[in-house]
Amino acid sequence: MSIYSAKKPTEQEAALFKGHDILSTYQFTKEELEILMRTAGYYEEALVAQKRLYDMDGKVMAALFYEPSTRTRLSFETAMHRLGGSVITVAESAKNQISSTSKGETMHDTFTIVDGYADVIVCRSPQTGVPQIGAAAAEHPVINAGDGAGQHPSQALLDMYTIGKEKGGVDGLTVAMVGDLKNGRTVHSLIEFLAMYDTKLIFVSPDSLQMPADITAKTREKGIEIEETKDLKYAVSKADVIYMTRVQKERFASEEEYNAVKDDYIIDGALVKSFKPGAIILHPLPRVNEITVDVDEYPGAAYFRQARNGLPVRMAMIALVTGNVK
Amino acid sequence: MSIYSAKKPTEQEAALFKGHDILSTYQFTKEELEILMRTAGYYEEALVAQKRLYDMDGKVMAALFYEPSTRTRLSFETAMHRLGGSVITVAESAKNQISSTSKGETMHDTFTIVDGYADVIVCRSPQTGVPQIGAAAAEHPVINAGDGAGQHPSQALLDMYTIGKEKGGVDGLTVAMVGDLKNGRTVHSLIEFLAMYDTKLIFVSPDSLQMPADITAKTREKGIEIEETKDLKYAVSKADVIYMTRVQKERFASEEEYNAVKDDYIIDGALVKSFKPGAIILHPLPRVNEITVDVDEYPGAAYFRQARNGLPVRMAMIALVTGNVK
Amino acid sequence: MSIYSAKKPTEQEAALFKGHDILSTYQFTKEELEILMRTAGYYEEALVAQKRLYDMDGKVMAALFYEPSTRTRLSFETAMHRLGGSVITVAESAKNQISSTSKGETMHDTFTIVDGYADVIVCRSPQTGVPQIGAAAAEHPVINAGDGAGQHPSQALLDMYTIGKEKGGVDGLTVAMVGDLKNGRTVHSLIEFLAMYDTKLIFVSPDSLQMPADITAKTREKGIEIEETKDLKYAVSKADVIYMTRVQKERFASEEEYNAVKDDYIIDGALVKSFKPGAIILHPLPRVNEITVDVDEYPGAAYFRQARNGLPVRMAMIALVTGNVK
């Protein structure tokens, strides 16, 4: 069975998730990943058929967003509403973000209290480790919606779902990862999942933003072939999936260094002509200028479909951890 | 049939709205305006009867409020809830408003993504044109809830609904518009609708805040009689409907200029005695001091009823554009 | 019948609440308090049984939080969702709080308008008296969720519910109140309720933060025995219930004064050994350091259970004032 298919989990499969937190991509076995993918497929079919769902009827999800992340928040909230449930929300603006000191203990108390209100807690934090503190405090499942430089498992899951769906499977694919591979939480997580399959990776980045050596080494040890290059045009001619990330000025040592490379990691209409036929472009969004607007028309420009896939994937996450796939 | 009555749209009438955006008052034909008014009347009857509605059951409305507008936001959200639907919200504070530069493209991306979550998108923006960008990006209908100096169609629609309901119709009415007619988005929109009927208009404003000449000229060309004056006492003795707006200090060239006229455009208990019998007072709210609190007791003080009429009017807008009047 | 039991109100009992505001602890008779407690018990049983409730189905609650109070807001919102209803929310950040001047009139207008949207309005304000202004303006019931130095009745109600539930009743209990008894809105309210029963009170505070003399005198007049001390160890050896509050630096005249006493009003694992057997600790939360984390393991550490009791208590408040206990 392909990674992308639509199938409700069996009782045994559902038991692997019920009552568990989703804190990191590292926690998933290949089997669990595929169960989640199929459950997402099942919910996507329900969405397409405009089926009214009652899986989370009468249930409450708490969305604790301690830094602004509008798209992720709206996606999780919509997922809960589409499952028939209700939502309570904390959505802090950038200026009201939790301070970086001494909040750990308070977070423990906050989660203990919110655990008394909600059936599932989704947490986004500018500080690494906050969802883990929450999971330790709460009896109900906690889903990490991004914790600083830490993890963002729902993004990696929807990336995998998108690849599986767009390409019909993952085995045999060449995936190019482009841009800031040093700081890219998203690509680090995605690599974990891709390495479960027979994939080949191409890392495309400026010298100062290369993939951390330990990740590259660890992935190679798993038998994954990795090529490193600065040549985007070469990479897109080989890749079935091109995963773009933002190259941010503030990551460079100097403005000169930034200016020297900033135009080397952009996909525009001209570059699309060099693509391997059928290649798709992914991007965690928001984009700034890494993909020019004219590329949106290209059939393989999958980044908006990718963002929308966040909905069925997050429905699957919520329904699985609460044991409510119906 | 009066403009105010309660009647569900026929299939043909509903088809005029289904899948369409509501971006401007200019887009409405008189027929469409009246269908919307009657649908609002239908929903008001349901509200009065405390009928539980399922018209938007299982559907999601996105409320994207990029500047604070609490009353408008709560009114739209309540409308969705009363129709049985769910709401996802972005409610920016004044300090987090979207900046005025270079956001157009990002807005396109944002609406494209939110379009994947929601069945209808309501947008408020400090920048003119943002809902239009949204409508171009989204397949689902977009409703403009106010875009800077641009349009605010739901306000004009509820104004018309209130006039029709309070006065039993619109033909034959004399409407006085008072205050800042130069910058008043609300009155500019309302004039469009009033000019569809046999109405007479009186514009009451200080010299520096007069109705723009092109609007006056265009409205006269439609055959509408317009009188311009600075004499509020005279105007209220002639008008069936008195539409008040705020006269804001910061609109004047100097404090002296403001102080010279600021008390000339206030309705108080004494002035009410000069009213034409049965006249009603409208105001888009919030008021500052344009209407003194003692006027609230006057039976024709319709501004709170007007605000409340926002609920059935917005229910009609949401249900019509999504094709869900049931 | 104990104060804590689970029982739906009779028609006559429900009539005491329907359509009434809840603005202050002072408004309650002992009978009304106990009806509310029993109704909360009824809802807690429904929560434990995971019963899907429709008591507020199709209804809308407005949560107007003009200062941040995340836990109280989430608790009220969850209560409404668990009753099957919908919520519209204003949640101001600290920086957007309503200013202290000249907003009274605007608040009147705001509540008049929101009253047209919602079936019940919950209001939190940094200014004393705002919920009262709201209640005067609105026809639907208003619930005070805290108004500055004024009242916070839902906190006192959940405190009583917790005492009744944890101790099996209130008569015969000795309650120690510890910390800032001068400024503690919570303890002032709670005393009103405790004085309805055969209780003994011990006030434990530094000299500068003593219980206001008029409250002490008034409570003694009701026949309640009150002991005042600075010796926390003595107090906890006598008390069945220890109600902790925060001792905030900024309440003291000087840092020296604060430093001299700050460690005298802390419960830690060592002090717990001096407790009267079976004693419970309450705290309105959030705590800072008044209760050390190791105390959480103590079976009588009831403060998180207390916070969670906010849910059934607020469900009872909402359902009772709207006449919807079903």
How does this model look, in words?
3 copies of one chain form a homotrimer. By secondary structure, chain A is an alpha/beta fold. Chain A has 2 domains: 155 residues, Aspartate/ornithine carbamoyltransferase (Rossmann fold, 3-Layer(aba) Sandwich); 154 residues, 3-Layer(aba) Sandwich (Rossmann fold). In chain A, 39% of the residues lie in helices and 14% in strands. Chain A contains 12 helices and 9 strands. In chain A, the strands form 2 sheets. A 5-stranded parallel beta sheet of chain A has the order 7-6-5-8-9, sandwiched between helices. In chain A, strands 2-1-3-4 form a 4-stranded parallel beta sheet, sandwiched between helices. In chain A, helix 3 links the parallel strand 1 and strand 2. The first copy, chain A, starts with 10 loop residues before the first helix and ends in a 5-residue tail after the last helix. In chain A, 54% of the residues are buried. About 2% of the residues of chain A have low confidence. Chains in contact: A-B, A-C, B-C. At the A-C interface, strand 2 and helix 4 of A face helix 3 and helix 12 of C.
